[in-house]
Amino acid sequence: MKSPLIAAALFSVLAPAAALASQDCPSVPRDQWMSDAAITEKAKTLGYDVRSIKVDDGCLEAYALDKDGKRVEVYFHPGTGDVLKVKADD
């Protein structure tokens, strides 16, 4: 009897979190993505020195140094190049 209740409670907590994650990195067809070179150039204009770029959950994630020389991970919208999130790289 408790198992369905626990499962329902977990789903009600986890489902909104999953929805928020998908909003951060939207689903964009691969042929509409910006190139790594274009993202690198955009990052440079924002003050980042990009070291590498990879795909992470639908976003283009750049490992970079910020203007203070600190390592950061910058998440870009793959189609527009807008910065969606920046986090310190520990």
Structure in words:
The chain is α+β, with helices and mostly antiparallel strands. Helices cover 37% and strands 30% of the residues. It has a four-stranded antiparallel beta sheet, covered by helices on one side. A hairpin with a 2-residue loop joins strand 1 and strand 2 (59-65). The chain is globular and about 35 Å long. The termini are far apart.
Biggest sheet: strands, sense, closure? 4 strands, antiparallel
Number of helices: 2
Q: What is the averaged pLDDT score? A: 82
Topology-level CATH name: Nuclear Transport Factor 2, Chain: A
Low-confidence parts: 7-22
Q: How large a portion of the residues is in β-strands, by DSSP E? A: 25-35%
Q: What is the CATH class designation?
A: Alpha Beta
Fraction in helix: 25-40%
Shape: globular
Would you tell me the structural class of the helices and strands? alpha+beta
- Cα(first) to Cα(last) distance is 43 Å
Order of neighbouring strands in the sheet with most strands = 1-2-3-4
Concise structural overview:
The protein has 90 residues and is of the alpha+beta class. The chain has helices at residues 2-24, 36-45, and strands spanning 49-56, 59-65, 71-76, 83-88.
